[in-house]
Structures are given as C-alpha cells and as structure tokens.
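pls design
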C-alpha cells in the first residue's frame, strides 16, 4: 500500500487526495495532510521535504479545535504564562510553548520558517531537546491564537508551558516506572523459582515432563514483563529508528526481543536452553536504573520549580472595604498588601509602612536577614522574619524578580555548551560501533560455539550500552547550575562554566563594581575668607538641583545652620554646576572648568576626587570626595592573582582617584578614561593577544563590553541594560561569588572528566569480558545500571 507523502501512513484504497510537489504528484492519506502540505508549499517551504529526517505528523486538528484556541487571547487566561518584554521602545509579549509532534531538526526549521512569516512575530526559537518553543510577538499586530493556529496549519500542536503541568508529567512518569518495575520484580522472582528447578537438572535427574512444565510456566510469567514492563525501551527504539537515528534503546530492545524469541523457540520445540530469568532480571535492573536516574536528574534540575513554589498562593489585599484574602497571581501594580511576621511576600513592591528584617537567601544566597524600612524595595518569595509590613505592589508576579530568575535559568539550561554537544554526538556514534562489534562477536561465536553465540552477543549489547556516557555531561551541568543559583549567581548562558575554567584575565569596571558607587564628602577646605560652614552651605544649595552622584554626596553631608536660596541654577554637563545666590555668581566643579593652571592647582598630583567652589573672582573652597571600595575587593584581587589570573581595571573615570584605587588594590593593569567603544576595543585587543577574559561591570557604559566578553558578570544593583548584556548576574553584589563560581566551574570540569573516564573505562573493561563469554546477561544488565547510577551520583556532588 502506498504511503502518505506527508505523514508516511498508508493511503486508503480509492483515495483521491494528492498534491503536486516539485512537479511530482504526491499521494496524501487524508484532507488534513493535504491541507498541511498545501500550507507548507504556499509559504515557500517546499525544501522542508528534502531535508526532513522523519515524516511529518498527521494533520488532525479540526476546525472546532482551531476555534477554541481564541480562548488563549483572553487577558485573564494569559496572565499565568505570558510576560511583557521590551525591544527598544516597543512593548512585546513573550511565551514559552510546549510543542507536540517534534521529531527532528527539520521540524524545528519548518516551524521557525513558517512562523517568521506571521506579521508581528519578532522572535521564535524551537528546542528539539526540550520540545519547547520560545516566542516574542507584538500584541497589536498578532494574537496568541494566531500563533497557535500557525503551528496547527503545518501539523503541530502547541500549548503554554507551565510548571505545574511539568510536575504532573513527572509524577505520571514516576508512577508508570513504579508499576512496571513492580511487575518486573515480582515476575522475575517467580521466574527465578522456576529457573532453580531447571538448574537442578545439572545436578540430579529431573523427568522431562517437569522440565517442559517449568519452561512453559516461565514463558507465561515472562510475557507480561516483556509486553508491559519493557514497553518504554521498545517505544524509545521505535521513535529513534523512525527518525533514522540509533539510540541506546535500540541495542537494549534488540537484546530483549532476541533473547525472548530464542527462549520461546527453545520452549516450543523443546531444544536448547531458556533464559527467562536473565531476561526478567535484565528488565528489572534496567527499570530500576531508569527510575533512580530519573529521580536524581529531577533533583539536580528542580531548583527552578522550587523557586516557583516560594510564592504563596494567597495574599492579604487592603482596600477601602478592609482586608481580603485573594489569589496572589491576581495582584496588580498599585495594590496594597499586608504581610505578617513569618509570612512570605506574594509580590514585588515598596514598603509603605513598617520595618522588618527580610530573609532574601533565595534571591541572593545571603543567609543573614536584611533590615528593610519604608521606601525600600522588597521581592516576592522573600520571608518577613519579625514584624508586619504593608507594601505597595510594584510588579505583577509574572514580571517579578523571581520570575525573571526562573526565565533566565531556563535560558541557561537551554543553552547547551560544546562539551554537552560532544557527548551527544559520541553516544550516538557509539551505538553504531557497538552494533558492529556485536555482529562481529556473533560471527566469531557462531563458528566456534554456536550454542553460545546468541547469549554472548546479548551480553555485549547489554553491558556496553552507553547510558553512562550520555549522562556524563548534562547531569553535571544541571547540578552546577542549580548550585550557582542557590549561591546567588544566576547564569543566563550555558558557556560561562566552560569559560571560567579557561580564563586567564579578569577585567573589572571601577565605579559600582570595585567601589560601592556611593560617593562621600571627606573634607572641606576653605581657600578664602568664607568659613567651612558657609562654603558647604553654598555647595549644598547648588548641588540640590542635580542628581549626579557627586551631588548626592553633598546632600548626604551633615547639614549646616545656614539656609540659602539660589536662582538661575544651570548644570554644565561634564564640568559642574553654576547659579546665583544673594546676587553673586557661584560655580562648583572641576579644576579644568574653573580655569586653574598647574601653579594654581597644588593638588594636581594628589589622589582622590577633588572639586572646587569659586565665585566670580576667586576660589572659595576645595572639597575632597571618595568612592568607598567594596570590603571584599582587595581580597578578591589577591585571590585572582594567586589563582594565576591577571587583573585589569577598565574604567571611564580619568581622574587621579582611578590611580589611587589601582594602587590600593594592587591590580596588574589600569586602563582609565575609556569610552564604551574604547572599552570594547581594549577587550578585542586582549582577545587578539590570546587572552580569555571575564568582564565584570554594572553601568550602561559597560553594556557593549559585557556583551563582547568571552564571559561576563553584571552586578545585581547595576543597570537593566548591563544585566541584559551579561552572561551571568551576581544577585548579592558580592564579588567573592566570582571566586566561588570559578571554583565550582573547575570542580564541574573535573567531575565531567571523571564521568567520561568512568563511562568509557567501564565499557572498555566490560567489553572483553562480555565478548569472551565470562559475563552473563543479567550481570551485564546490573553492571550497566550501576554504571549510570555512579555517573549521576558523582554529578550530584556538585549540588552539595
């Protein structure tokens, strides 16, 4: 019977559904497949059929289902899974979709090319590993239902991905494995009892009728195990073969089916040996290994799900009518919320009344509670430890810092480093080599001991299954990512761990990174007839009209008893500020702006930040300011240098203060007075010289260099642009976390190497044992499962 050109299913006799593709009339099995293929052709994507490695899925979505998709356009429905984002000044929406029917890379290519043609769609990325699609679109030009219909038109189903659905899927998967394993365990024990009776024939004479009876009983007990318990291996093998790939399930299924068929033959014709006990134990050990592996991998990757659970379900909202219990997800910007002592905050907000210590360990990794007062920002998921608070919601839950962390963590896990891709390729090629070796082993034994050929080949297939090899990298990377998140380092891209192990230079911004960014006034020195209080009062009056960090230093200075009023105040960008006070023109700013020459400026070689106050004819005062170094900055520089890393301060500050900071910290290089373009050019120059650099910054001017570095970290208190450009974020603004991240990266690399060494070494060790006939199939199954568990357990050490 002819197969459908689109989905591969048989075309019913007398069917007239067909479509001309590249000049050839191709048969279709139904109008659904014909419509899907027509859509593909109309979109100019006919080359999909040339590059696909598996048939498309059947076009089954009926018009009633398409109509139901419009429900996803309702705002109250979207609030659970759609987030607002920005692209420049344009407001976009972002969603993560689960996609059914993905079978190969060609499917992802087809979906991306088709959806890109939708007006208003700005970004689409389909991950064939997780079967998810990340999409950004303009709600003014495109609806969510149209995007979902776009999937349906080419034969795929998509629906919003949500954490609780993932939890339900995991629970169903564990329950399924438990049922299958229970049947295999009980069945294998009963089969083993029959096997004992069969093995007795080696020692004493047993009548043939009893031997036949026990063989048939073993067959009856083994059949449910082979049909039900071993089903996951058959399904995995069938999917792999349909896609034209070889997976570990292929070799396992070949071994199981071959052994079972051979045993049935021996039972029916009463010739040869049966190995029902080995088969059932094999299935039991495989399922046990899969279950333990599933739980271990789940534990390693559950940090994102655990973050979602930190937000309480209910919140106490305050309005004109009093206090009401409402669902936390219904809170909107401007709502007032009561948070009692010991409760968890339900949303990001600003404290309106009250003061309390908040435990923010889940965000920053800092275990000590922080004092928060009226006007301070607070975040969803943090714990109020000691006093009631009233907060005003500043962001809905889907835009909270916690939600951002979860999204960024998902991005990092979706980004597969080169070493993980290498492991995937190795495991796929290893299966092909394994099958060739198994064929050679069977050929050898067939001519030397035919009765043992099958069972030795079975042991080879089972013992050398590359389960451990395929788990060597992903379990380690997932555990390391979860550990970093708990420690206050949020990875946005997966290559950071790899770069940390190879980097030889750390490049850091000064202000806000090595320093606190809070400039303070150290001293006031009168230079004329006015006293210190009068000079400070004039400076405070002028600086009150500016929001520059230097102006904030004067605002925080101790107030004077002198009250002044200013007029005609005007800031001069890059120089200072000027204005009229009591009929006199005053200026406060840099020595260069005030026209001081070398003779008049005795402080030209002095370190620190110095500005001057002058009237129309003379200098009145000199102010010395300083930006305080972070407490851990010097220790961090010393630790980096002890680890063999070169250190560079790369700053836009061209003053003598940059030199003073560099001298105090003892960095290897200072590059000051740099523009954003200059910073990026410097980093490219270091790259051309062979350096692998880590960049740390916080400001808008650091964004280009953060994006251009091999790996980059942004401070949590930095600008949004800097955080969006960086590869990772230091949630606690704690520079010592960089050292912890590098230490963990080195441990991760070490454990990945250990996993590779164990998995490859185990296969090299067990292959000759199995090929020589020394290893029975059931011990081969136990060894393979144990090998996988050792790799997963070794990776879990990174989670401690």
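designed seq:
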């Amino acid at each position: 019977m002819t197969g459908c050109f689109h989905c591969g299913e048989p075309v019913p006799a007398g069917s007239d559904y067909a479509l001309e593709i590249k000049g050839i009339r191709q048969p279709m099995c139904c109008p659904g497949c014909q419509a899907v293929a027509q859509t593909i052709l109309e979109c100019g994507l006919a080359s999909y059929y040339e590059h696909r490695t598996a048939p498309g899925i059947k076009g089954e979505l009926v018009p009633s289902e398409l109509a139901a998709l419009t429900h996803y356009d309702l705002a109250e429905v979207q609030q659970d899974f759609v987030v607002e984002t920005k692209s420049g000044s344009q407001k976009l929406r972002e969603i993560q979709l689960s996609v059914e029917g993905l079978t190969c890379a060609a499917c992802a290519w087809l979906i991306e090319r088709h959806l890109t043609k939708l007006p208003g769609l700005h970004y689409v990325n389909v991950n064939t590993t997780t079967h998810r699609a990340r999409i950004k679109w303009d709600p003014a030009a495109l609806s969510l239902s149209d995007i979902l219909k776009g999937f349906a038109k080419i034969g795929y189903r998509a629906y919003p991905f949500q954490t609780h659905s993932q939890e339900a899927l995991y629970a169903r998967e564990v329950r399924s494995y438990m049922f299958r394993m229970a049947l295999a365990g009980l069945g294998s024990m009963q089969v083993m009892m029959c096997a004992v009776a069969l093995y007795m024939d080696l020692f004493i004479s047993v009548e043939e009728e009893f031997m036949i009876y026990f063989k048939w009983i073993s067959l009856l007990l083994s059949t449910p195990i082979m049909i039900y318990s071993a089903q996951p291996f058959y399904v995995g093998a069938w999917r792999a073969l349909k896609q034209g790939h070889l997976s570990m399930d292929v070799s396992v299924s070949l071994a199981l089916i071959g052994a079972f068929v051979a045993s049935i033959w021996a039972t029916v014709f009463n010739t040869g040996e049966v190995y029902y006990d080995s088969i059932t134990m094999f299935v039991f050990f495989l399922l046990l290994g899969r279950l333990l592996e599933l739980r271990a991998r789940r534990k390693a990757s559950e940090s994102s799900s655990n973050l979602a659970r930190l937000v309480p379900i209910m919140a106490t909202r305050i309005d004109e009518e009093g206090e009401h219990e409402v669902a936390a997800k219904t809170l909107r910007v401007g709502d007032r919320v009561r948070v009692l002592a010991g409760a968890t905050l339900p949303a990001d907000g600003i404290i309106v009344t009250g003061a309390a210590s908040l435990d923010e360990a889940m965000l920053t990794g800092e275990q000590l509670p922080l004092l928060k007062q009226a006007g301070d920002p607070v975040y969803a998921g943090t714990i109020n430890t000691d006093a009631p608070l009233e907060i005003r919601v500043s962001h809905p839950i889907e835009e909270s810092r916690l939600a951002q962390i979860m999204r960024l963590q998902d991005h990092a896990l979706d980004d597969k480093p080169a070493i993980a891709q290498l492991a995937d390729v190795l495991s796929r090629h290893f299966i092909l080599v394994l099958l060739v070796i198994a064929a050679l082993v069977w050929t050898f034994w067939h001519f030397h001991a035919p009765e043992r050929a099958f069972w030795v080949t079975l042991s080879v297939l089972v013992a050398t299954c590359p389960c451990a090899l395929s788990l060597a990298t992903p379990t380690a990377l997932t555990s390391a990512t979860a550990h970093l998140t708990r420690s206050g380092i949020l990875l946005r891209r997966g290559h950071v761990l790899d770069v940390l192990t190879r980097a030889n230079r750390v490049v850091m911004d000064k202000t806000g990174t090595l320093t606190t960014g809070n400039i303070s006034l150290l001293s006031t020195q009168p230079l004329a007839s006015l006293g210190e209080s009068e000079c400070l009062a004039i400076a405070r009056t002028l600086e009150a009209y500016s929001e520059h960090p230097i102006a904030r230093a004067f605002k925080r200075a101790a107030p004077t008893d002198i009250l002044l009023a200013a007029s005609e105040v005007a800031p001069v960008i890059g120089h200072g500020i000027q204005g009229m006070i009591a009929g006199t023109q005053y200026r406060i700013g840099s020595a260069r702006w005030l026209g001081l020459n070398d003779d008049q400026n005795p402080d030209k070689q002095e370190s620190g930040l110095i500005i001057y106050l002058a009237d129309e004819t003379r200098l009145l005062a000199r102010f010395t300011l300083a930006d305080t170094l972070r407490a851990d900055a010097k220790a961090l520089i010393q630790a980096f240098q002890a680890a063999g890393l070169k250190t560079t301060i790369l700053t836009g500050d061209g003053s003598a203060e940059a030199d003073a900071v560099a001298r105090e910290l003892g960095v290897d290089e200072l590059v000051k007075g740099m523009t954003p373009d200059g910073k990026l050019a410097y980093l490219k120059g270091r790259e051309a010289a062979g350096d692998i650099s880590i960049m740390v910054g916080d400001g808008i001017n650091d964004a280009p260099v953060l994006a251009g570095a091999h790996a980059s970290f942004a401070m949590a208190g930095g600008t949004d642009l800097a955080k969006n450009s960086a590869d990772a974020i230091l949630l606690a603004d704690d520079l010592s976390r960089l050292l912890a991240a590098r230490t963990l990266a080195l441990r991760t690399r070490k454990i990945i190497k250990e996993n590779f060494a164990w998995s490859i070494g185990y296969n090299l060790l067990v292959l000759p044992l199995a090929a020589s006939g020394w290893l029975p199939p059931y011990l081969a199954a136990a060894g393979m499962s144990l090998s996988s568990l050792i790799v997963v357990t070794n990776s879990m050490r990174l989670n401690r």
